[in-house]
Amino acid sequence: DNPKQADIMDTREYQATLNNDDYVDRMSTIRDMMPLLRNLTGEYFTEEDWDIAIYEERQYSTSRCGVKYSELRRRKFYDENGEIQKDKTTIDINMDEPIKEDALTKWDLTPSDDYKSEQKIEHDVHTSRDKFNIKAKIKKLPTHFSDVKTCGEVSTLFPYCFDEDVDLDATVKISGDDVFIWDYSYSDYMFFGTSKVKLSWTLYYDDLESAMNYTKAPTHKSEFSIRIYSPNDGMGPFQRESLDWVAAIYSG
Asked: What is the end-to-end Cα distance of the chain in Å, rounded?
């Protein structure tokens, strides 16, 4: 009944960790997997139907802002020539919870109306565990958008993410090293056209050059994932049959 939740998409993502050594020749491995994916999904996609995204990811810690979110991250996107893509930068914030209701009610990540944005509640399913993740993303930030340095700058983007008594001048620190991601994905409406589904290989590297070198194995934990949106592009209730269908693909 909370009107703020009306625009939150409902998704479920199944993730499997990859063996990085299998991706020294990433496209050869991916091509070997294609017949199985076509058989499991019933989709007759070709290589030209898949999209490539290359981006730099920087993580921040909000621990000095009164609450430590699971992630606050900035992404800058590059084309396949290594040139930065103009005004494509994103920043998102998210929090994990073991219970869906807690994720929806404990955290208000509504973005500022000054930006193009999206929100979603995602059920993350891994081989050994699962969790719920509430997330908000601000999209199409200026190319020169560099860093968030204070809790006040974060709250300008996400006005309700901290308590009212937060120290707006407290610093937001960069957490860990930047990584570069090569993402290979296919999206379409599947299961008789009722549900949007995205299949992705997401490979993590130390630098842009390695991410663009198709004979370099990933240097960080990488994954294959299947994301399904509830009907009406994530705005309607899930159908049990579509969830069973995508779970069977994941198991296959």
From this structure: 38
Please give the backbone phi and psi of residue 111, each rounded to the nearest 5 degrees, phi first.
-75, 160
pLDDT per position as a tens digit, 177-197: 999 999 999 999 998 888 999
Structure tokens, 116: 């193009």
- The answer to whether the CB of 212 falls within 8 A of the CB of 102 is no
The model's pTM is 0.94
pLDDT tops 90 at residue 23:
yes
Torsion of Cα atoms, 137 then 94 then 250 then 50, to 10°: 20
Q: Where are the beta strands (DSSP E) in the chain?
A: 8-17, 51-61, 71-78, 89-97, 116-125, 130-141, 173-174, 179-190, 195-205, 223-229
Contact predicate 52/183, CB 8 Å:
yes
